[in-house]
Design goal:
Length: 138
């Protein structure tokens, strides 16, 4: 099987020196296990870890992004739509939702609001954890 997830030229955040951590919310983990093989999942995680800014933001100021990924299969190609949160290279990228196929309409307004709230909570938790780590090492 040839890998079709490749570098995307012009992506602003290229974590070329080191990959960032990719985490998943439990629901996304279940969907990834249902939709992808272990090898395909590894390809997806690698792509996001090295190119966390590859998708399109849900809104103008959103840090929640969405992207369609295609995987080669025996029958051609299968696509999944991944919704994820990327803040910066100092905190993990979080996969929030996974949908089979190309999701043309995107998340519902309710889903979008929920994901934005979760993203804000993740940033606050990351800031608190960084402060605790800084204070304990001082």
């Amino acid at each position: 099987m040839s890998k079709i997830l490749k570098s995307v030229p012009g992506v602003p955040f290229m974590a070329t020196d080191y990959p960032i951590t990719v985490a998943e919310v439990p629901q996304a983990t279940v969907m990834l296990e249902e939709l992808l093989t272990e090898c395909q999942r590894d390809e997806l995680v690698d792509c996001l870890a090295y190119q966390p800014d590859v998708g399109e933001p849900l809104g103008k100021l959103s840090q929640v992004r969405t992207n369609v990924f295609a995987f080669e299969t025996a029958n051609g190609f299968d696509e999944i739509t991944v919704v994820y949160f990327f803040h910066d290279l100092n905190m993990p990228l979080y996969i929030l939702a996974v949908y089979e196929g190309e999701r043309v309409s995107g998340p519902t307004t309710r889903e979008e609001i929920t994901m934005e709230r979760l993203a804000a909570e993740l940033v606050q938790t990351s800031i608190k954890d960084a402060r605790k780590a800084s204070n304990s090492s001082a």
